[in-house]
Fold this protein.
Amino acid sequence: MIHKFSLFGTNIVMDVNSGAVHIFDDVAYEVLEHYENNSHERIVELLSPKYSSEEIDEAIKEINSLKAEGMLYSEDVYEETIALWDQKPVVKALCLHICHDCNLRCKYCFASTGDFGGQRTMMSAEVGKKAIDFIIRESGSRRNLEVDLFGGEPLMNFEVVKEIVDYAKSREKEFNKNFRFTLTTNAILLNEDIKNYLNENMQNVVLSIDGRREVNDKMRYRVDGTGCYDDIMPKIKDMAQSRGQDNYYVRGTFTRENLDFSEDVLHLADQGFKQISVEPVVAAKDIGYDLREEDLPVLYEEYEKLAYELVKRKKEGKGFNFFHFMIDLSQGPCIAKRLRGCGSGHEYVAVTPEGDIYPCHQFVGNTEFKMGNVMEGKLNTDIQEHFKGSNVYTKEECSKCWAKFYCSGGCAANSYQFNSDINIPYKVGCELEKKRVECALWIKSQGF
Amino acid sequence: MKHVKTINGSTLKDSLKKGGCGECQTSCQSACKTSCTVANQSCEKN
Ligand code: SF4
Ligand code: SF4
């Protein structure tokens, strides 16, 4: 399988199964159009009014040799290898819901403004420690473990954050583990002390802000309805700066109400941020701000605009990283990871303030997916196997999709929300993902 | 080659040989929290 597209005058051809990526000139690109269904002579005939037969001939030969080297039209050899990696499931990442409460009331919050459809509650240190014991036990021989301190708003329960972190660290040596912590916050409660603590203890910090003031404040407001931009922007700037503009993300969400989201990304870049992630909202169908198929053409254009601007700024030495455009072609994840995707429900689980275990933060509150409780320490292995058994080959759409080794089968939660089945991907999400991969490849083709 | 410039070789196939250690980061953790792009993760062995 190959995938080809042109963007800003560059013809890009990707050999899906080998991972090879090529830039074709116009002759070769047109030859490719006819390559599979026509003989050498016929292709020359078809294209000779436009190009010299010599050029066409050369291009065909180059394509032949790429094919012979396994860098075009190569076979998919991975499906059978999945079984090789099919070891006992291990949990290696936790999302700890430190607090099901929030000091904001963001309109699109998937956590129902913090309470996840339940009571507003705080995780106790005891539950947090049990969760740490749980991941140590369930992670087998994996050394690197990730714990994301998440909410609601985790800084509303900061003392417990500290206790959990201390406890995890105190167990590292004995069990030969290495914990990496991330904290996701809306920045409202950030202050000098908390900043210093986070810089000492968190490998990554995710700071929520949507972009331009009017866009942010329309979605991210306090209990009294007032927007939070003016309050959080200086704190987030200071935090990013104190981390040397690395190992953090400013994280925004775009919705139907700001389809021109490239402006928001650039706004954040203009504020000096170097690590930016702005993503499509996950929302129920027809809720108003949900993204629809009819919005796709506008969104495609926005991603293209953003890719173009990003390259321009990189050339000027003013670049930044946009999370969804970052693809490491040569040293990215191995194929084993690419087939499986996010790992929700088997490698990665979420734990609520009460200690309940769910496949990921997006599933929290949907009791059908409750996998157990850390206080009891037992996992429902049926659910775990169900998630583990889902990969790009078990999803019909994905197995046919050219982007499968980059996207890895999309978001299970998204699929479930839209199609009540973790194996049927969410269409709008797919189209956006494919566009992002194209933009990312184009950025690579420009040398960045 | 005159008409084709290869910017990346068969890296996926090559990763078959060393892959599967599982020490790498899980995707959602790093930044996204709502959607998934796995290819932007890095391999622990690099
Ligand atoms: S873009 Fe959609 S169809 Fe393609 S791999 Fe991702 S989830 Fe599957
Ligand atoms: S299911 Fe979706 S939200 Fe959950 S961990 Fe996977 S990509 Fe992230």
